[in-house]
Amino acid sequence: MEKINLDYGGFVVSNNVIEGKPIRYTFREKSDIPKLNGWTIYSIEDNDDYVNNPDNFKIMGATSIIKIAPVMLEIFDAPYGTDICWLYEEGVHIGFYDLVNEKEISISEILSDK
C-alpha cells in the first residue's frame, strides 16, 4: 500500500474529517511542497478560525483517504483550481457542486479541463 501513497502524494486533511465529520469542501491548488498533491479537505464543521490554524490539519496518504472518502481517488486528477462542495441528502454523499462555476457537477466534468 505504500506505493499507492507515493503515487498520489499527501492530502491536507482537517482533523474533523479524520475524526469522522462529513466532508464539505475539497479544493486543489498547486503546492510548493513536492510531496503534497495539492488537495485540501475540509469538514462540514470547519469555520474560518478553524481552517486558519495549521494545527487543525494533518497530511495523509492515499491509503488513509481510501478509508475516509474513496471518491477522492476518483476525482484525484482534477485540474488545479478545482473547488467543490460535497452535496448530501439525508447524510449520504450524493454529488458535488462546483464553487467556481456555481453549478452541480459530475465526476467526469470535474476531471475535464474547464
TrEMBL record:
Pfam families: Imm33 (PF09951). InterPro entries: Imm33_dom (IPR018689). Residues 12-84 form the Immunity protein Imm33 domain. This is Immunity protein Imm33 domain-containing protein.
